[in-house]
């Protein structure tokens, strides 16, 4: 059985039409699926995780100038701008997660009998600034005044 050129051409055209129809159905199906699927929140989660990982842990050392105010000044924009879509409780938890072990224990003991989750973000920052702020002896304070 030999196939003539015309018959072969006819078979190829028929296959081409079938492939085009199948491709068109595939494109329509994919288009519908893209319109139905809700926006994926995974990139946001990854972004928030990477932002949280970029914040270093805070360790209080007033002699070296490592106070909470200087540390928070560095990351204030992260908490106020980049994480503004997160609620205050989430930001408080992240802030407290970034405290060193001794700093977290000291803060928790300072606010007793309240829990860490009971304070607002601003109040938490204010308390941490007060606890881990600059310390100066009375002698040092007077000495600095005399130098003026």
UniProtKB/TrEMBL annotation:
Q: Domain of life here?
A: Eukaryota
The UniProt entry, under InterPro entries, shows: DUF7083
Q: Which Pfam families match?
A: DUF7083
Limits of the DUF7083 domain: 48-134
What name is this protein filed under? DUF7083 domain-containing protein
